[in-house]
Inverse folding.
């Protein structure tokens, strides 16, 4: 905002930026920091940090290292949560004998996972084991539905773009149950152990995992990325934003699954039967999370 002030016959143009700050973002379109809209628990998040930006891309082993900067630049869990990445559950997959590969997944062995599936909006799940570095996973991309990665065994690295379009590195390990929204740019690499056993969930009702590369897709030609930008980035790529809801997979309180052994051995087919064609998009996660933690 400008004001004209006459001083000794001269016209002084004064920029009153402080006045803009007082009247607030409604008048100057400042995009506020996005609020966390799920039951956030920082202790469930692994250590987060900013990875190296400049490295020799011809050395394929570098993504398998921790890629920490010197000095290390840690990132708080809230920063990743505001981008839509959640760690909600404290689970122990070691109690169950999961297959190395199952596509699609036919049965939930853990009653807690069955409960999560029952209250979710996912339409497809599987189990895979990764034993080598794949460049297609490392290529920056996003998916067309909210996704879950439940680490059954092993370790690996996920890198996510925060609300400032900067990388945040997450080293996932056995028991981590991570959820992130459609349209969020990310990449993955195994670590030096070259072993990770993962259960995957997706809202997309397809046996094919579609990855949209950042080099080819953005908000101008993909609705999933456009929706993410509108909800998390105030409609612009790389700007912090506020959103009414994040569309988490866990969306409602389960009926008849949360008590006793109701979820044990529940088939994937029965869980998905009522979800085709009427997927819930509300952000009612709190009751489901509390119910799991009370078990």
């Amino acid at each position: 905002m400008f004001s004209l002030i006459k001083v000794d016959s001269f016209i002084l143009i004064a920029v009153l930026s402080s006045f803009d700050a007082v009247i607030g973002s409604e008048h100057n379109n400042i995009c506020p920091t996005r609020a966390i809209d799920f039951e956030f628990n920082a202790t469930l998040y692994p250590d987060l940090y900013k990875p190296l930006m400049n490295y020799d891309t011809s050395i394929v082993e570098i993504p398998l290292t921790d890629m920490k900067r010197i000095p290390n630049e840690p990132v708080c869990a809230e920063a990743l949560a505001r981008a839509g990445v959640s760690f909600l559950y404290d689970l122990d997959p070691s109690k169950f004998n999961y297959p190395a590969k199952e596509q699609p997944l036919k049965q939930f062995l853990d009653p807690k996972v069955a409960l999560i599936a029952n209250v979710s909006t996912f339409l497809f799940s599987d189990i895979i084991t990764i034993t080598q570095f794949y460049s297609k996973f490392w290529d920056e991309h996003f998916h067309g539905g909210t996704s879950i990665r439940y680490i059954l065994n092993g370790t690996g690295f996920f890198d996510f773009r925060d609300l400032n379009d900067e990388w945040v590195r997450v080293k996932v390990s056995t028991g981590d149950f991570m959820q992130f929204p459609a349209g969020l740019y990310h990449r993955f690499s195994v670590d030096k152990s070259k072993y990770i056993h993962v259960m995957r969930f997706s809202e997309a009702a397809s046996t094919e995992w579609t990855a949209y590369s950042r080099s080819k897709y953005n908000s101008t030609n993909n609705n999933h990325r456009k929706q993410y930008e509108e909800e998390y980035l105030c409609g612009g790529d790389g700007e912090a934003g506020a959103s009414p809801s994040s569309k988490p997979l866990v969306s409602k309180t389960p009926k008849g699954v949360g008590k006793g052994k109701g979820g044990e051995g529940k088939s994937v087919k029965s869980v998905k039967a009522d979800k085709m064609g009427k997927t819930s998009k509300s952000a009612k996660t709190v009751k489901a999370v509390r119910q799991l933690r009370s078990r």
